[in-house]
Design a protein that fits this description.
- GO terms for molecular function: sequence-specific DNA binding.
- It holds the Pfam family HTH_8.
- This is DNA binding HTH domain-containing protein.
- By secondary structure, this protein is mainly α.
- 84% of the residues lie in helices and 0% in strands.
- Helix 1 crosses helix 2 and helix 2 crosses helix 3.
- The longest helix is centred in the N-terminal third of the chain and has 32 residues.
- The protein starts with a helix and ends with a helix.
């Protein structure tokens, strides 16, 4: 039973990392599409401009 719990935790970490990778890639693509115009990128992503800046900082963009 202990092994199953450990596998589940590892799977959760992998899924989280995959979601982070997808989100980072999406932000990069939208920024390219908007020629780096962040207000438009935030609008297209459906997030606030402050949120976009925080995510960019977190992902090193």
């Amino acid at each position: 039973m202990e092994r199953k719990c450990q596998l589940s935790e590892n799977m959760g970490n992998n899924i989280e990392l995959d979601l982070i990778s997808v989100e980072k890639h999406l932000i990069q693509k939208v920024l390219q599409h908007t020629n780096g115009y962040k207000p438009e990128a935030a609008r297209l992503l459906g997030i606030g401009l402050t949120t976009l800046y925080k995510k960019m900082e977190a992902y090193g963009l």
